[in-house]
Predict the 3D structure of the following.
Amino acid sequence: MRGIVSLAQLSRNQWRGREDLERRQFKALRSLVHHAYATVPFYRDLYDREGVSPADLHTPGDLRLFPIVTREALQSTPQAQLVTEGTDLDQCLRSRTSGSTGVPLEILFRAPDRSAVNPSFLSVYMAWGMKPWHRMATFQSRSERLGKRSWFQNFGIFRTEVLFSRDHPEKWIEALKLWRPHMIHGYSLTLKLLAEALEHSGANDLHVPLVTSTSGVLDDGARRQLATTLGSQVVDIYASDEAGSVIAWECPRCPGYHLCSDTVVTEFLTDGCPALPGEDASVVITNLTGRTMPLIRYDQGDVARVSSEQPICGRGMPLMEAVRGRAGDFIILRSGRKLTPHPFFLVLDHALGVGRWQIVQEAVDYIRVMVTMPGGHTEDDCAAIRRAILELVDDGTTIEVEVVETLRTTSQTKLRSVISNLPEGQTP
Ligand SMILES: [Zn+2]
């Protein structure tokens, strides 16, 4: 029931005026900063060290007085210091993700922290014409079904079929023909594979009006293929685990993406200062809904541009231009099959002791996996990673796992934790 209430609130918030939204956002921000300082040791120590206090937050612009928090800083801090005092760590839910940066971070949360996640996606789908009785298909990387069906799905509302991204694209097409969804949601690279497979198969009896893409922007070629083969409108959604919901989404009418200013404070910074419209900027977010493990001024590791355009659709939420940067490279197997990087993220984000990782495909039958193991390692740790990667690739592929002291991270490599050194378009 909480999800339905949240969906109704988020859908209503889209149409609030700019000033109303700003006032609500600042109220939520102040409450969060006070909460974090009073109850989370990490923020109390950090703000004391930097000489700032929640009382300094008089206007939205004062947020800039507070220090930016990086993924690495959180990763190297004991979890008990990152959560509200008195939190029973064993009772927390956890999501572990590197968000394609190659630096796994575990986020602890409880159900109320995430009550806006699914509704924030649903409110975008509905803005694009989806109705509660339409059927959906979503891709997922794990081979087991995640989560329980919601009570409303048992009543035929937002019914969803799961497609597994590790399956062969032909299997996806078969499932889509049976399920006949109104919309498909997936990672951009998975959708690119689907688009190629649809064009190759010549299937012309499928019509899916809406395709929503996340985790990297779908390129124009794949958008065209999906429009031609499925008759789809393709919508990009910018979301992250750390933000706890959608950060921004493409509007059916406006030039750009609406920022979800009701659930996230999004800053666009160059050299620590607010960026000008159209300028490449680092995205720094504050998650207004997560109170168990607050994320305040968290450097998302993405590059985007703030927009100078004003909304024309009547929504009060400000606009940004597209997120920039590559979604990552495909791994191409000996058989010619392409794999998206996501199954590799799953293996390495969950490998014990890994501080940072990077995968480089040097040849169709040779993949190097580089990891840092800050707490030390044994041969068994490396063998376990090698075995898990071997399960993803074709027989006869050489997997080399190297433990290294450091891995480079520049703004270019951040988005490229899986790198292919094969010549563009190479298939064996
Ligand atoms: Zn709009």
User: Anything to note?
Assistant: Residues 117-238 form a domain with the Rossmann fold fold (CATH 3.40.50.980). The chain has three domains: 2-114+241-324, 117-238, 331-420. DSSP finds twelve helices and 20 strands in the chain.
